[in-house]
Amino acid sequence: MKRSCICLITILALCMMSVTTGCTAFRVKQDIWRVERAVEIRGEVTGADKGKPVIVVLVRDDGRKKVIRNYSVRYGPGSFRFLLTPGSAYLFAFEDRNGDLHYQKGERAAWFGGTTPQKITLKDGEISEGLVIKLSMDVPEGTDEVVRPEKTEEEATLGRVKVSRGQVVSLDDPRFTEDKGKEGLWQPVHSAILNGYGLYFLGPYDPARVPVVFVHGVGGYAQEFRTIIEHLDKTKFQPWVFQYPSGLGLDVLGNELVQAIVELYAKYRFDRLVIVAHSMGGLVSRAAVNQIVNQYPNHPIKLFVSISTPWDGVDTARLGVDYSPVVVPAWKDVVPESPFLQGLFERPLSPSVPYYLMFGVVGGDGTDGSVPLTSVISLHAQDDAIRIYGYPETHTSILRSSAMIERLNTLLRQKAL
Hints:
This protein has 417 residues and is of the alpha/beta class. It has helices at residues 8-18, 23-37, 143-146, 178-186, 188-195, 226-230, 250-268, 280-295, 315-323, 329-334, 339-344, 373-376, 379-384, 402-415, and strands at residues 39-46, 53-61, 66-75, 78-84, 87-95, 109-111, 120-122, 127-134, 155-158, 161-168, 197-201, 210-215, 237-243, 273-278, 301-307, 355-360, 387-391. 32% of the residues lie in helices and 27% in strands. A nine-stranded mixed beta sheet has the order 9-10-11-13-12-14-15-16-17, with helices on both faces. Strands 2, 3, 5, 6 and 7 form a five-stranded antiparallel beta sheet that branches. It has a three-stranded mixed beta sheet with strand order 4-1-8, with no helix packed on it. Strand 9 (155-158) and strand 10 form a beta hairpin. Helix 1 runs parallel beside helix 9 and helix 4 crosses helix 5 (188-195). It is globular. The two termini are 36 Å apart.
């Protein structure tokens, strides 16, 4: 049987071999080096009304003019976070009173630094935190021209990366193939620049149908969900896929999923949403769910289903971190008892999000062919699950299991409509 997901034992072996293949190893090392050089900006917005969209914009000066390089959407006052390449940047935030995701004169806003925008300069790996942007009506003239929004459409271009926020595509799109999934694991930055990432729609948005977000795992890709999507009741549900470079740190990926969901919620105001995640995608999704629930009491998530997720990590990831010449950032997060895994269960999952745990097991070795059963049915995860369902399937064949798909569709009808 073809195994489309890469287990961590295989990852480690491939990594050791890749270091001996010259140019391939150089490209992988160079890509990871770019990730390690990344700088981070953290802060909070104050002075906004609860329940109103707040847009935080990161602006860079290219020598000729200020250019938007990233943005973050949230509701009401609270925190923001950006990961970017070393250099200088400015921050601007505004309260989107009319809900069009664009800044206009008359909306409460502010630059970091007040009426004189303050430049933030960071070197390799540095973090700037504790930054506060206090919104007011005292905004410098010409600001609306500087932050003219062209980044909140279905596909935004942030620096050299295209980010989807509801771009309508086919599941046959070449960005959703197995090769692209592997590329996203080994060369996450290169993959993001070449292929883009984000939440994609498989058809035009329909307010009458409930969105179901599918989140793949390590080295995964959207086409792995083809059988499930084909059996989805399209009269009641609309499939969305979160395609992302899985080699990045899981906290970064979880935050990106949050941003995608929150921005689309600001645009469409759907009142129901489902997340279905496979393998490591469950870890990314749980991080996103935790963040959304904590920030937004009236969130739209009505169902969360994980399939074959290594909730307690995988021991072989520790070998990769300790001994591999090239360490993919995501591995550090799936090491058992990593800070990321511990943080996932610092508090119980909110009862407002019905959670179901599904897993496969084959043979007598206590695994599904990739992940130990003890990790997949972690007691931490079981404590939060309404119910768990096991199937005689491998780590990837479970995505094509008729019994699992029938159960998933039952849960969708019962919990999401």
